[in-house]
Fold these 4 entries.
Entry 1:
Amino acid sequence: MKNKFNTFKQSYLWYSFKRDKVAIFSMVIVLFLVLSAVFAPLIAPFNPYDPLNIDIMNSELPPFWMSGSDPSFILGTDDQGRDLLSTMIYGMRISLLIGVGAVVLQSIVGIAIGLISGYFGGKLDSFFMRMADVQLSFSYLMVAIFFTAILQAAVGVGRFGEIAVPFLILVIGFAQWPQYARTVRASVLAEKKKEYVEAARVAGFGAGRIMWGHIFPNTLSPILVLSTIQVANAVMSEAALSFLGLGMPISRPSLGSLINSGFEYIFSGSWWITAFPGILLVILILAINLLGDFLRDVLNPKLYKG
């Protein structure tokens, strides 16, 4: 383990990371937000899911620097009287859970299809790529809206709230697998012609072992870059669905549903209910995208100088 860490410290990735202030700052922001979400019960001043912490008489209290505020609620309260800071931390937790879960699902499906399609080629490749073309011809957000609206109408809003997290992971994950499939397929087409693959075939290795044991490790760089981008896209997709009222319910808010719940109050003076969750969402997406841009530049073989 120590040797692997020393190898990483001597790598071009680590060397580039240390010299890139934007990448360091983005990593610090992402780690801070992720750890805040993971340890929300320990960090948040209140538990927004506990009815004992909710008082409707405290609704729409402004942030601490404005008149009429309560020092107990640093960023004010929402329309239900919940501490906005605590609700944002818990909401970010749900947003990240859905985003990461959706990316894990789409990567599993897309990588498997990309490997099989690129390695075997022929009719199997044509079938999978035509499937990807058909799916890419539709906006993934429209696909998610379509299935979410159908399920919400079928089971009811109350029941939908109980299954919203796994369902959003499924619908966002399956809506975006073609990106992984195309990326992996392109890498496989380049790798399978190389000598180490031919040597593995001559040695009698099966197709599964060659694909997963030899070719797949050499496709990890583009997969890593794509994953950072897709996490940001998945979080944005969840926020968009929740903003449209088709995502997380207000009883279990995500950042998107928080923005939606406060949008009707933005012109009545309670701007903070929408503004602060919106700012947090922008910071989260921006930091992830900047980190993804850094990885894309460093892991691009054409830019490698090590």
Entry 2:
Amino acid sequence: MSYTIRPAGPEDITALIALHKAAAAVPDGLARRPDEITQAYVERCIAGISFVAVGPDGTIWGEIHAARETVALFSHVLSSLTVAVHPDRQGRGIGSRLFEALIAHARSMQPPILRIELAAGAGNPGAIRLYERLGFQHEGRQVARGRYPDGRLEDDILMGLLL
């Protein structure tokens, strides 16, 4: 099934809220819970760098966003990265293509972006494998970083990609 990748815009806000809520509702979908996906959150997402995967009918199947660090010392870094693919569309390479678009865009930015960083839940090996395939390296582990509503704790795996 074909889809296109394009920059996200304000016209996508309603669809992106629905996408992120759907992704957040499944285990290991997103760090945020569905009730934490708000219009203000999505507006902040697309204020940085954001790309969407759009199906032939105009439905948004996935989204990725990141932001340049604002402290001068770290301004060569993209962080606050999140990728969301609708649960019904996972396993079709959408996440990979969204990352490829983000990485290509980062390489063209001025002043240059030299590093992209992210954190992945240790209990999400599929996401970690995807990031490794894209060239991200393991850089550390934050022990008990995430706490689920049932009280379980999960480590975050810190990963980085040098461009």
Entry 3:
Amino acid sequence: MARQGVLITGGSTGIGRALVRRFALGGHRVWFTYRSNREAAEALADELAGTRAFEFDQGDWESHRRLHDQLPGPVDILINNAAVGSQTVRRYVTGSTEQCDAAFLQVNSVGPLWLARAVLPGMLERGHGKIVNVASVGGGVATFPDFHIADGMSKAALVYLTKHLAAELAHEPVDVFAVCPGAVQTPMLQASLLDGLDGAELDDLFRRLPGRRLISPDEVAELIWWLCRDEASLLHGAVLDASLGLGVHPGLLTGGAMGHASSTTARSVA
């Protein structure tokens, strides 16, 4: 894979952090965003040569404009990883349930649309590009009725965005994919689900999860790394269930009392 410019949103923790490491160690120029965790973002950028961190408020139009003005080069690979979950949405809004509903859609769906729209013309002009949307098994693949309805709606919208762009670009040299992780060991999963469970409930959760384990961020990052290779063009438009099988058997998780957590939203905007 030739050295390329890679933009990764939500890169300071979780899957995003693993993606920054994978692409930087793979020899690419990596630019990643964070919203509030400046210390972690700057430490990661200092550690990995060829990376830069940018403060970014996804879904806010002025922040989008500033980000694209600041980027030091063309984006060849866009990875829409940043998102909010049932707990982290409160970093955006502290008001009503209706305001939280709107934030889910604005951050998780509209923000990736704006990012893709901004980088696509350059990709088409240069004759190559990859867009990977990191959605979730909840909403993107299966229905988890105990979880936040607006969260699932936003992931379904992100999958639709993937399919729509892939259809528009069927004869163009830009590939688009969606990856739908399951229960990944991230700070967002910790806040959205694990922190609310006692020891016995945690044991029960692990017994019911596919493979009886959480997915590691590195596993998801490795899958996305492969999707950005030329060989993956055969999968243009694919929506990949990266949940260890939870997407085909959601009852493994919904069979217990999980409350209203968004446990399958396994990413971070920190």
Entry 4:
Amino acid sequence: MTDFSVDPWDPGYAAALAVEALAELGATSAELVLDIEAGPMEWGPVRPRGEAPKSLLVADGVRRIDARVWVRSDDDPMPVPGIAASYAAGMVRCGPGGADLAAVEIGRTLISASPYTPEVKTPHATYAPRQAAGPSMEELSLALQRQVTQLEVDVAVRYRADSDDLLLVDGPLRGRSHLPATVGYIKTHHTAYLPAPQAAVVSELAPGERTPVFLMGTSWRRHAWYVRLPVRSATPWAGVARCEASAELAAEDVVRLADEVTLALLPLAGVDYKDPRAPQNLVPIGGLEKLLRHHLGDARLLYRALRTAAQG
């Protein structure tokens, strides 16, 4: 008998579980310590204990390329490709009364591999110069992402100066693992990290359950666990997100954190009739992304302003 199921995400987006990740289950090169919370052969779905935190901060960042550019200099007549980009970071506080915007900050940048990358001023925005490691689009994009991540860190540090609230950041924790009580939240799975017996536990999770905590290392080390959000689909890993926490946390502290985060995530799960990436795209993340993109300004207006500045 052959059957099939339909991935709950809108087909305009990549699947929540990448095909290459599904094909590589059981074949990971990551460093793994599986016995943080349970022995490797004792793994099974975990129903979180305790209570959800009274307040949860959710941080996210967005980016947009406003124009592709070429940088020229009298000292180096060979033109160098670059990008003019806008980016923003913000934070939402989620509590019993709903979600409130806590902070928003905007940045503009002109990135190229040229050491002569200029500052560009227009009537609507100023683009600060930054140098990328190389001229490829991948290297330009990486340089931009570093600025987005740094702005997210800056917002978190400034806003949490008088707060010990749990912070959830959209995306891997890399570059932010030094922040206290902070968890990275990954919606899409491009790599399968767990061996087959433990990966099977992920498929067995019921909504509201998580895997045991484990430690993994690739180019950097962190604690991690998988959690399944409320979802109606029966597709592989439907509604599954991965969470990451600092590798410096003691076992009992990261287990407690995993329980708190799992309980906090359940009421924030996206719903499919509102969000094409539900349930992993949490309601406050979707709302914050929309707000941040609005704060980036009119892309057409900024593009025209950049063209005028280039001609002047």
